[in-house]
Amino acid sequence: MTLTQASLATGALNIYLDRTDGWSNGRYKIITLASGAGGPNEALWNESNVVVHGKGAAVGASFSDLVWEGSSLYYVVNRMEWDGEETGGVWDSSQQKDGVDVYFGNAGSGTVMVVGNVSPSLIVVDNSVDDDYVFVSDESGGKITGDASLVKSGAGCLALDMENDYSGSTLLQEGELRVRHVAALGNTSDLTTVKGSFLVIEAPGEVTLAGRADIGSQVKVETHSTLFVQEGEYYAEKSEINGRLVIQEGVDASGAGELKGNGVVEVLDSSARFSNISEFAGNLRVLGDAASLSVTEGTYATDGRISISGGMLDMHNSNLILEHGGMMTLESATLKAKNIVVEQGAELVLSETMSEYTLNRYAQSVGMEYNTVVGGVVESGSLTLMPGSYYVAAGTHLCLNGGRLILPGHTEAEQKVILTLESDVEYGYDDKVWLFSGVEMVEFEEEALTIDTLSGQVLTLCAADYFGGPWINEQTLLIYDALGTNVYLQHVGNAVPEPRSSILALLGLATICLRKKRA
After folding, report:
1. What is the pLDDT of residues 235-244, one digit of tens each?
2. pLDDT at position 505 over 50
3. pLDDT digits (tens, 9 = 90+) for 333-361
4. Which of 89, 198, 288, 346 stands the most exposed, by the fewest C-beta atoms within 10 Å?
C-alpha cells in the first residue's frame, strides 16, 4: 500500500491487521510514504502517529515489532522455536526486543520455557479449551519482568509455574488462570478477574496479591496454598477453599458469594459476607474488633473449628450446628444465629466474653447491675445443648437475648452436657455462677417441661441431672430464675474441680485442706 500526501487526512493513521497465524518469520512491508508525504523523521506521518492494531500472532506464538526504514514501515515477525504444536516451545529473551507485544494463540500450545528475562509491553494469551499453556523458567531462572501487563482471554487455561517480577496489571477476562508459584503474579499493580472466569491458587505456600485485587470470578485455593487479599474488592461468584483464604484489613468482601471446601477462611479486621456456606466443612476465623463475617442464608453444619475473637459472626438468618468433633470459641465477640445446636461430642467455649463477671459478690463489689452485659452478645432463636456435648465457660455466661434454651435431662453420665468451668478464683458455697441469661424460655427435656418467663416461676433442680463434670455433684443446684431470666449454678463450692492448670491444682489442694480443718 502506497499513500500520497493528498490522500492523508490530519491525525493518526490506524492500520488494522487480521489474525496472522499463517505468517512465518520475516519482514512484512506495511506502508510506504510517497515522496513529500513525510518520512519517519518528519512531523506528520511517522511511527508516533501510525498505529498498527492486531499485531503479534504468527504460527504458534510470536513477538513482533514495527521498524521504519526510510519512508517504509515494516512489520517484523519472530516466531518462537517450537518442538511441536503439543510439546511446547522456547521464549528466548535474546531474540526479542523489549517493550513489544507478545501473542499466544491456539497453535503451538503447551509448555513455554522462558530463557532469560523477557520484558514485553503486553502479553496476550488467547486460547481455547485443550490448547492450554504452561509458563516455566529455564535453569537460569528466566522470568517476565519490566512493566509488562498480562491478559488472559479465551476459554482455555494458562498456568504460571515460575517466579516473575513484572509490575503491570493482570487481567483475567476468560478461561482459567492457575497460579503455581507464590511469586507468579510478580509485582503486579492490580489483578482483575471477570465474571465467568476461574482463578486457581495451587502454589505450595503463601500467595500475596501485591496490589489491588478486583475479584469477580470463581476462586479455588488448593490444599497447601494460601491466598492473601489485602486491598481491593472480593466479589467472587463462588469460592472453593481447600487451603487458606485470608481477607485482610481494607478489603471489601461484602459480596463474596458461595463458600465451599474444607480449608480455612480468615477475616482480619475486615468485613466479608458470603451468600451461603452450607457446603463448607472447614474452619472459620474472625479476628479483630473491626472483623465481621456474615452469612445470608442456609444451614451451616460443621465438625470444624470456629474462632471469633473481638469480631462478629452474623448468621441471623441461618442455623448453626456444631457436629461431633466441632468446636466454637468466642472471645470478646458477638454471635448472631437463627438457631444454634451443639451436638454430642461438640464443644462450645466462651472465654471472657459476652457476660458480666461470674461471681455475684464480685459484681456487687464493683457496683455492677444485676445481669449487666460487659462483653458482646449472642442473638439466637434457640440454643440446644445435646447430650454428650461440651460447654466450657471461662469466667463467663452466655446471654441469649430473649432466645430459648434447651437442656437434655438424662441420668447416665455419658448422656449429660459436660460442663467445664475454667477460673483462677475459688467459688464459695453461696456464689452464683451465671451460665445463661436473657433467656425467654427454658426446656428441660427430662421432665418435658417448658417454662415461660411470664409465669414468674423460680425452678430449682439438681444440676447433676443435666450437667456432668468435675464441678458438679448432687448438691449443686441448677436454678432458673424466671424473674431475672437467668439460669445459674449454686453450691458449686461443694465440688472440688479436677485441676486443669497449676493454679487450679493449688486451689483444689487448698479446698481439701480447708475441709479437713473444718472437719
Report:
1. 888 999 999 9
2. no
3. 888 888 889 998 999 887 654 333 333 33
4. 288
Residue 396 pLDDT = 62
CB 415 within 8 Å of CB 452: no
Q: What is the DSSP secondary-structure string of 266-331? A: EEESSEEEESEEEEE-SEEEEESTT-EEEE-SSEEEESSEEEEEBSEEEEEEEEEEE-TT-EEEEE
Of 47, 138, 154, nearest to 99 (Cα)? 47
Cell numbers at 17, concatenated: 491487521
The answer to whether 160 and 135 are in contact (CB under 8 A) is: yes
CA distance 369 to 347: 30
Nearest Cα to Cα of residue 394 among 487, 331, 485? 331
64: nearest Cα among 40, 90, 39, 28: 28
Question: Worst-scoring range by mean pLDDT, 25-39, 142-156, 217-231, 254-268?
Answer: 25-39
**CA dist., res. 7 & res. 67, Å (int):** 23
SS3 label, residue 414: helix
**Of 28, 55, 30, the residue nearest 45 (C-alpha):** 30
DSSP, collapsed to helix, strand or coil, labels residue 251 as strand
- Convert 447-466 to b/e letters by CB count within 10 Å (16 or more is b): eeeebebeeeeebebebbbb
- Identify the band that residue 149 occupies on the pLDDT scale cut at 50, 70 and 90: very high
Alpha-carbon distance of 210 to 168, in angstroms, equals 11
- Closest to 261 measured CA to CA, from 277, 280, 247, 274: 280
- Residue 138 CA to residue 232 CA, distance in Å, equals 34
CA distance 27 to 158: 30
pTM of the model: 0.77
Amino acid at 469: G
**Cα→Cα distances 143→183, 190, 273, 348, 398, Å:** 10, 19, 37, 50, 56
- Sheet with 157-160, side-by-side order of all strands: 81-84, 88-92, 110-115, 133-137, 157-160, 176-179, 198-201, 218-221, 238-241, 258-261, 276-280
